[in-house]
Each structure stands twice: as structure tokens, then as C-alpha cells.
Design goal:
Layout: E1 2-8, H1 16-30, E2 35-41, H2 43-46, H3 53-69, E3 77-81, H4 87-96, H5 101-105, H6 108-116, H7 123-137, E4 143-145, H8 151-167, H9 169-174, E5 184-186, H10 220-228, H11 246-259, H12 263-269, H13 275-300, H14 304-333
Parallel strand pairs: 1-2, 2-3, 4-5
Helix pairs in contact: 3-13, 4-7, 4-14, 7-8, 10-13, 11-12, 11-13
């Protein structure tokens, strides 16, 4: 069976990019009986940057609520909070002994965050990819949905898993264990990275303030305003051209993801139309997509007791899968039971 693992940080308010690049695809996968899916709110990852405790709690609930509001099937898939499953931190420590400092220092995200958070270059910022490797390997994930900015972390996960399997080849064979499954990346063809509407060279971020960010909780008027002000170019031509028309291509990607179209179909739809009509049509499509999800979210977020119940059930299911993996690793490494 295909097994998918993905996580979202509760480090800011959820954006259109989080929905189109992750949640929408995850909801579809959660309804596929041939796929076993695990989706977690990765709160442990979020604390590499200082978080307000009250906001961290609120945003953790919010990420879970947005998943549910979008239609995630929790009977077919597992939704849980990362810190509710202790195996994540335990395996991360064990895997850190199979990860080289040089590998971590070469991670692009570590370099970027070190520049943006010079006052707090903590050890967690450096070892973040090891925890991500633990997240993935605990669930025997065969496929991991990642954007271009996370491919490097998945490559490290693969390297660490292969390193462990090769080092303990004899022990694994003797114990009749297969070791870690080596995961493959699953990169969406459309909207893998939704870019900022004002700065289309940058990914739409939930942690960086920008007029080009569309939040899932934004009103129709706010969404329309953001798209109306979206940066395009002077070409006066709607074309799929990331190199020369990044703003237009970003808007097309959003429209394709919402409407279920191919780039060619979307380009044909806007042939001969001006950028004003183009941006207005994309805005209308986004508003129509989000309105029912926003209504359901408003109901869910007010019922913390029900959210707690759903997350507790998810953590129990996740732990049943994760803990045996930790015990296998400890046994193979020689720890006394």
C-alpha cells in the first residue's frame, strides 16, 4: 500500500498556498482506499523560531480545523499533533547519530533562517531536518509530498535511512527486519509552490507579513483586493512562462489548482483577455472555493472539545504505527529491552 506522510507548521496563519499546495491534495489522498495517509501538525518544528505560547496553541488547533473543514477523511487517514507522539523526538535523537554536521550545515533552509534569525541560531534550527527524517521514517512513508524548498530535506532523510540500513545489514537480516523504507518525493504538478502575489519570486509565507499573502480566513473583499493588486508584467499576454512572466504564471497556477485545469486549458480560457479580467476571474474562483471551507472552519474552531477528541484518536493511531519502529531501531542498535 502507498503510504503518505506530510506535516504543516503552526507557525503563522494558514495561507492560500498551504491550502492549494498541501491541504487540497491531502484531502484528495485521504479518500483513496489504496493510500494510507498520515498528516500531522508539526508543532515541534515550529519552535525553532520563538513562538508566543497562546498563539502556538491557537494555531495548532487552527491547522487541524482547516484540514477537517477542507474535508479530510479521518477514518481513512490519520490526523494528529506531532508532540502528542513521543516517538518523533526519540527517533530523532537516534537518527542524529547517523547524520553528519556537514550535511546539516549545507541545508539551504538552515542558511536562510540563520540569516533571518541571527539573534537565535539555535541547535534545533540546525537539527530540524533530523526531526523531519524521524517524522517520515516512523510511518514507513513511501511518498512524501514536498515543495521544491523541502526536496533537500527529503534527500537527507533518504541518505540517513540508507546509512542505517547498510550499517546494520547483518543485524537486520538476523532479526528478519527490513529496516527503513526509502521514501520518494511526491511533488504536485500544479501549485507545488504558491508564490507571493506582490513578490512572485518568493513563496507565499504564513510567517512573513506581505500584502501579497492571501490568508484562508480572509474575507471575499480582502481576497479580491489582494488579487486586484497582484503583480503581473508589461507583456499584456496571459501565458505560462515562469522565467519571463512569474506573476502571471503564479496566478495561472492558482486558477488551475482551484478549477482542476491544466495550464494549457487555463491559458486558452484567458486568450485575448486583459490582466484586469484575468485577475478578477482568479479572485472569484478562489472566493468560491474558500467560502464553504471558511464556514465549516468557523464551526470547528469553536468546539475545542471535539477537536481534542479527534486529535487524541489520531495520536493513538499514529503511536500504534510509530512506537514499533522506534523499538525496532533500538533493538537493532543494541539497546537493552
Amino acid at each position: 500500500m502507498k503510504t503518505v506522510l506530510s506535516g504543516i507548521q503552526p507557525s503563522g496563519d494558514m495561507t492560500l498556498g498551504n491550502y492549494l499546495g498541501a491541504i487540497k491534495n491531502h484531502v484528495k489522498a485521504s479518500k483513496d482506499p489504496s493510500t494510507q495517509s498520515y498528516y500531522c501538525v508539526v508543532d515541534l518544528h515550529a519552535i525553532t523560531v520563538r513562538q508566543d505560547p497562546k498563539l502556538l496553541r491557537e494555531r495548532t488547533y487552527a491547522v487541524a480545523a482547516w484540514y477537517l473543514a477542507a474535508g479530510l477523511d479521518t477514518d481513512q487517514s490519520t490526523l494528529f499533533v506531532q508532540s502528542h507522539v513521543r516517538a518523533h523526538t526519540e527517533l530523532a535523537w537516534l537518527l542524529s547519530t547517523f547524520t553528519q554536521i556537514g550535511e546539516l550545515e549545507r541545508m539551504t533552509q538552515y542558511k536562510d533562517k540563520s540569516q533571518r534569525h541571527k539573534h537565535n541560531i539555535n541547535a534545533g534550527l540546525l537539527t530540524y531536518p533530523v526531526l523531519m527524517a524521524a517524522d517520515i521514517l516512523l510511518y514507513n512513508a513511501t511518498h512524501v509530498p514536498v515543495g521544491d524548498d523541502q526536496k533537500q530535506h527529503l534527500e537527507l532523510t533518504r541518505d540517513v535511512a540508507i546509512r542505517f540500513n547498510n550499517h546494520y545489514k547483518k543485524e537486520l537480516k538476523k532479526a528478519k527486519q527490513r529496516g527503513f523504507i526509502i521514501p520518494e518525493p511526491a511533488i504536485p504538478e500544479i501549485a507545488a509552490r504558491v508564490m507571493d502575489l506582490q513578490y512572485p519570486e518568493n513563496k507565499m509565507s504564513k510567517s512573513a507579513e506581505s500584502a501579497g499573502t492571501v490568508l484562508l480566513a480572509d474575507t471575499p473583499k480582502q481576497i479580491e483586493k489582494a488579487f486586484k493588486r497582484a503583480v503581473t508584467d508589461n507583456e499584456a499576454n496571459v501565458a505560462w512562462d515562469r522565467a519571463n512572466q512569474p506573476g502571471v504564471t503564479n496566478l495561472l497556477g492558482i486558477y488551475c489548482a482551484v478549477k482542476g485545469l491544466t495550464p494549457d486549458q487555463a491559458v486558452a480560457e484567458f486568450a485575448g483577455k486583459g490582466y484586469g479580467d484575468f485577475k478578477g476571474t482568479v479572485a472569484d474562483a478562489v472566493v468560491a472555493e474558500l467560502e464553504p471551507i471558511q464556514q465549516r472552519f468557523a464551526e470547528l474552531i469553536e468546539d475545542k472539545a471535539e477537536l481534542d477528541k479527534i486529535l487524541a484518536k489520531g495520536a493513538e493511531k499514529a503511536n500504534q504505527q510509530a512506537q514499533p519502529i522506534v523499538e525496532m531501531v533500538k533493538d537493532i542498535m543494541g539497546f537493552v529491552k
